[in-house]
Amino acid sequence: MPTDEAAPAPVAESELVLRPADEDDADALALIHLLARRAAPMPDPVHSDDDVRRWLRERVADHAPGAETWVAEVEGVPVGYARTTAGWLDDLYVQPAHQGTGVGAALLDLVTARQPDGFCLWVFESNRPAREFYARHGLVELERTDGSANEEGEPDVRLAWPGEDPVAFLRGLVDEVDAQLGDLLARRAALTRAIQPLKRSTRRDPARERAVAEHLATRAPALGVDRLERIVRVVVEESLAAAAAD
């Protein structure tokens, strides 16, 4: 929407300094975090300001492999920061007065340079400015959730910068999902085996299988109920066959 306000002037490259954070930066970074979050279209925080300060002190002091925090300074004053762990961009916040000046882009460029194999991050679905920012810089949306797994309980979006070899990066994510599927299928087969001696009838229950597919469709709407019903049917058939073979 057009406004009468002038766009903020870009920060000159000579004025912007990116440096590793140290523990003395924690309070300044917490202030950036709190101000940026309040200015963004995000759900209300579930943690107090003091909790955020303590949490960031711990994160800045974290020296685990891949754990890094970088500060963006203008004229010696911290105006933004980025925090990463291996394969993830956990935080990227810029003080509201310096948003749109190139600070966020500089921090993101730094993160992509330091994680050339790619990384993921989560953004609230409601935070459209952040999603548009990441889209402009080549990140892609991978999945959306209903928010049941985050503390705020609000829908979010998983984004990724797929790195210098996007196919290898995305195949790595597929491998992670396949490993999870293997564990779930093993549990499903074990439960099927356990329930068989307790059932009064060995007949299949198409209505229940349809209900399972409908429930799954709320979590995987892109597949749709009919496709999921076919998947459920195969899982049930093969789990029963494995139980009968024991």
Q: How would you describe what is shown here?
A:
It is a single chain. The protein is an alpha+beta fold and 246 residues long. It has 2 domains: 16-163, Aminopeptidase; 170-245, no CATH class. It contains 7 helices and 7 strands. The protein has helices at residues 26-39, 49-60, 103-114, 128-136, 166-195, 206-219, 224-245; strands at 16-20, 68-74, 77-85, 88-94, 119-124, 140-145, 156-161. The strands form 2 sheets. Strands 1-2-3-4 form a 4-stranded antiparallel β-sheet, sandwiched between helices. The protein has a 3-stranded antiparallel β-sheet with strand order 5-7-6, covered by helices on one side. The longest helix is centred in the last third of the chain and has 30 residues, at 166-195. The chain is elongated, with a radius of gyration of 23 Å. The termini are far apart.
Helix content: 40-55%
Radius of gyration equals: 23 Å
Task: Tally the helices.
Answer: 7
What integer is the average pLDDT? Answer: 92
> By helix and strand content, what is the structural category?
alpha+beta
What is the CATH architecture term of the largest domain? Answer: 3-Layer(aba) Sandwich
How many domains? The number is: 2
CATH class of the largest domain: Alpha Beta
Name the CATH superfamily classification of the largest domain.
Gcn5-related N-acetyltransferase (GNAT)
List how many beta strands DSSP finds.
7
Percentage of residues in strands: 15-25%
- Uncertain runs with pLDDT below 50, 5 residues or more? 1-5
Terminal Cα span:
66 Å
Biggest sheet descriptor: 4 strands, antiparallel
Q: What are the secondary-structure elements, in order, as H or E?
A: EHHEEEHEHEEHHH
